[in-house]
Specification:
homodimer, 338 residues, alpha+beta, Ribosomal Protein S8, Chain: A, domain 1, 7-stranded mixed sheet, 13 helices
Chain lengths: 338, 338
C-alpha cells in the first residue's frame, strides 16, 4: 500500500464502537459489529474490516434498520436454533445464538442456525471459524440483492450468494473458504470502472441481457455466476436454503425491500454445523490424519489452500501488535463522524 | 439416436435384475440396483441407466465387492443415521437407511445419513429426489477416484466429487441438480478422444501438470475442477464431508484401494435432509410461494431450471410406457451374460 498508517490491535474495536455508537448503533450492536471488523482487519481482509463502517453508516442513513433491537431466540427441542434479529444487523443475533448452535450440534451431531429479519454486510468466514475453533465443521450461506443473472438468463434474479465452509484442523489454522457465487464481486466491477478497464468475458450482461465487458453496462445490467450452469445451480440452492427454507427473503425480495436506498441488504442467514466425533462414530482423531494427508497432497504440488494468505496476515499482525490500513481510510472515517 | 430399440417400462427392472444376479449380486442388491437403473432410464439419463450394468459387472470382476452383504444400521439417538454397507454396493444401504433419515429429519428438523464402506456408481439425484418427494430438501455428496487436480495444482488429488440437491415443489417436479465438481466428466474426455477432437482450454493438465487440450494427455494427467479456485474449494469440502467427517476414504485412498482394477470406486456417501416446516417455523406453504416466484423469474427470462429435460423425458416415457435405448446397448448387454 502506497500510504498506510498503523492501528494498534487494541484500538480497532475502540475506533469501531465509537463510530458505530455515534451513527446510531446501540452498545450491544456496536460491540458485536466491532468484533467482526476486528476479526477481518486482523487478517488484512481490508474489504470487510474497518472499511465496512461506511456500509454500517449508510445502512443507518437508509432509515430502515433498528440500531437497538435485541435479538430473540425461539425455544426449540429440535436441532434448529432460530433467532430473530428483529430488523437489526445480523451480528448480535449470531453472537447470541452461536453457543446454542454449538450445544445442539454436540447433542444431535448436526444442527442449524436460522437467522431471520437481519441486515447483513459481513464476511461469513469469521462465523464458520467460530465453529471450527471448537472442533466442529461449519457452513454458512446468505442471499443478497438480485444483481446476478442465472445461467442462460438476461437479468438479475440471484444474489451474490456467498458460501463459506470451515473444517477444524488440530493444532493448525482451519481449512476455510468463503466465496461469492457471482463470478466477480460487485466492488471489483466498480474498480474496473474507475480504472477504465474492460471486464473479462463471461462476467456480466448489459441491461438488454447481452454479454458485455463494459463495467458501467454491467452495473446497469447483471453480473453472472462463477462456473456457468453449475455455479448458477449452486446459487439457486443458496437462495432456497437461506431464504424460503427459513421463512426469509430471497435476493429479489431483499432488493425490493431496499426501495433503491443504499446500505446492507435485509434478509436471512443459515449456518450448518457438523460434529466430526459423532459423524465418525468416535474416530475423529484418526480421520484428522486422513484429512491432513489430503491437505498435504494439495500443498505438496504447489497449490494453495484457501485462506492461507489470511492466516499468514493474522500471525504477522498478532506478533507485531498492529495492522496497516490505507491512510485515506482513517481520514475518511474521521470525516464520517466529524 | 440413430438406431434405437424400445424397452417397456415393466421390463427395465427385469432385464437389470436378471443380469445383476447372473454376474454375482444377491437378490436384495440386484433389486436395489435395478430400482436405481429404472429411475435413471425412465428419465432418459442414458449414462446412468441400463448402461451402468457394465460398471456393475466390472466391479464384480475386480473381485473386491461383496454381492450379498446386508447393510447394518447403527443405533442412534442423535440426528445422524449411520449405515455400514459392509463392502457391497451403496444402494441397498441407502434404501435401508432412507426411512430412518426421513424420520430423524421430521423429528430434529435437520438430519444426515452417513453411508460407509460402499462401492458407488450411481447418480445422486434419485436419492435426493426421494427426500423432496416427501416434502424435505436434500443434499448429497460423494468422493470418487483422485483424477482431479486442485486449482493451481499439477496432479490428481480430488475426485469428480458430485453435489446433488433437491427442493420440494408442491404439485410440480422438484428443483433438482446433480453435477460433478470436475469441469468435465471422465466419460466426456473419452468421447473427445474417440472423436479425435481437442478438449476446450482449462479442463485438464497433462502428466507433467501443464495445461493440455489433448484427450489422451488429459487421461494420463489430471482433470481440473469447474469454476477454478471456487470449484476446487467446493470439491475439497465434498472430500471432507463425504470422507474424513464420516470416517471413510478420500478419493486418493479410494484410488489406492482399487489397485488399478476397474469398476466402481469404494468410499462413503453423505446425505443431508432439511424439513422446511420446522426451519420456517410452520410457514412452509407461504414460503413455497416465495420459492415459486424465484423459479418463475428464472424461467420467465428464458433460462432453464436444471433437470427440466429429465422431467420432460419422465413424463413422456411414463405416458407412452416405454423408453428408447441404443440398439447396440441391448446387444452388448445380451453378450455380457452370454
Amino acid at each position: 500500500m502506497a500510504d498506510t498508517v498503523r492501528i494498534n490491535l487494541n484500538d480497532i474495536r475502540e475506533i469501531s464502537t465509537e463510530i458505530l455508537e455515534k451513527v446510531g448503533y446501540g452498545r450491544n450492536h456496536a460491540s458485536a459489529i466491532a468484533d467482526m471488523l476486528y476479526t477481518c482487519q486482523l487478517d488484512d481482509c481490508q474489504s470487510h474490516g474497518l472499511f465496512r463502517l461506511f456500509m454500517c453508516h449508510e445502512t443507518m442513513k437508509a432509515g430502515k434498520i433498528d440500531g437497538n433491537a435485541e435479538p430473540v431466540l425461539a425455544e426449540s427441542d429440535n436441532a434448529i436454533v432460530r433467532v430473530d434479529a428483529r430488523g437489526a444487523m445480523s451480528l448480535l443475533a449470531v453472537e447470541k445464538a452461536m453457543p446454542h448452535l454449538i450445544a445442539k450440534t454436540r447433542k444431535f451431531g448436526i444442527a442449524a442456525m436460522a437467522v431471520n429479519n437481519c441486515f447483513h454486510f459481513s464476511a461469513l468466514w469469521p462465523e464458520v471459524e467460530q465453529l471450527s475453533a471448537v472442533g466442529l465443521a461449519g457452513m454458512s450461506m446468505v442471499p443478497s440483492h438480485s444483481w446476478v443473472a442465472p445461467a442462460g438468463g438476461t437479468r438479475g434474479t440471484l444474489g451474490t450468494n456467498p458460501l463459506a465452509f470451515s473444517w477444524p484442523r488440530s493444532g493448525r489454522s482451519p481449512f476455510t473458504f468463503d466465496f461469492a457465487t457471482s463470478a466477480f464481486a460487485r466492488g471489483e466491477i466498480e474498480l474496473y470502472k474507475r480504472a477504465g478497464k474492460p471486464l473479462p468475458e463471461g462476467v456480466a450482461v448489459d441491461a438488454n441481457g447481452a454479454p458485455t465487458t463494459d463495467p458501467q453496462a454491467a452495473l446497469d445490467g447483471a453480473m453472472l455466476t462463477f462456473g456457468s450452469y453449475k455455479g448458477s445451480a449452486l446459487s439457486i440452492m443458496i437462495e432456497l436454503l437461506a431464504g424460503p427454507l427459513i421463512d426469509d427473503l430471497t435476493s429479489m425480495e431483499s432488493m425490493e425491500f431496499a426501495e433503491g436506498k443504499g446500505g446492507a441488504p435485509y434478509h436471512g442467514q443459515i449456518i450448518l454445523a457438523f460434529d466430526p466425533e459423532q459423524f465418525s462414530g468416535g474416530k475423529a482423531a484418526a480421520n484428522d490424519a486422513r484429512a491432513e494427508r489430503l491437505f498435504a497432497d494439495i500443498v505438496d504440488q504447489g497449490a494453495r489452500l484457501p485462506s492461507q494468505r489470511r492466516f499468514e496476515a493474522r500471525k504477522r499482525n498478532q506478533e507485531r501488535g498492529y495492522v496497516e490500513v490505507p491512510a485515506a481510510l482513517l481520514d475518511d472515517l474521521r470525516n464520517l463522524t466529524a
